[in-house]
Amino acid sequence: MNADAEALAGSTRGELAGLYGLLAEVFRRPLDRGQILRFRDPSMATALKEAGVDAGPDFASEDVSALQHRLAVDYTQLFHAPANPTERVSPYEGLFTGVDDSLGESRSDAVRHFMGDVGFEVAEGAGEMADHISVELAFLAELTRREAEARAAGDAELANLAAEIAKRFLEAHPMRWVGDFADRVEARAQTPLYAAMARLLGEVLDRGLATLEPT
Fold first, then answer.
1. Structural element, H or E, at residue 163
2. Other CB atoms closer than 10 Å to residue 154's CB: what's the count?
3. pTM of the prediction?
4. Which of the two residues, 99 and 65, has the higher pLDDT score?
5. What is the pLDDT of residue 15?
6. Which of 26, 44, 174, 177 has its CA 20 to 30 A from that of 186?
7. Torsional sign, CA 44, 45, 48, 53
8. 143 near 24, Cβ under 8 Å?
9. Domains, the chain, ranges and CATH?
10. Which residues fall within 8 angstroms of residue 6, CB to CB, at 6 or more apart?
């Protein structure tokens, strides 16, 4: 079983970190050929199925180039340029919630400051603002990975600190909007993969918050 498949196999903190990372990858940009082939790997396909992700009957057999094009069209129609602009689902917290219409600090700045205060920086050249869904998920992946590593090393103090930061971040940012975001993506996606990944996204965030109890 490959690493991605293992990340979908259970609910430990390390596995949850893997799920956050996988979802960050899925929602960052349209899947490329290599990512599609990785998702088709038998162990990964089985793990996705066990996690409730049904990529559709043609995902494993369709010509890769054709599938890549179909997924890219769906991604674009969902997040960037739908035929009906009112159906666009913004992947940015500020735009999705409308908070950036206020005179206060933008959501992007608020997320960036939160991350910066604990030593996390959005990678240069990533091309996304801090409140993009993929950046928020990548931050959760890093925090949860650090927690898992600290628990494995017997460092309860560091593990609890990472868990406390993750809990504060979840409550202040993703839990305020990602549930609605996932519901809208699932309802409007034209491909089974994006619909299923949106459903998984909502489930993973709920699980992540529910299990954040420092010990």
1. helix 156-172
2. 8
3. 0.88
4. 65
5. 85
6. 44
7. positive
8. no
9. 3-210 (1.10.3480.10)
10. 15, 18, 47
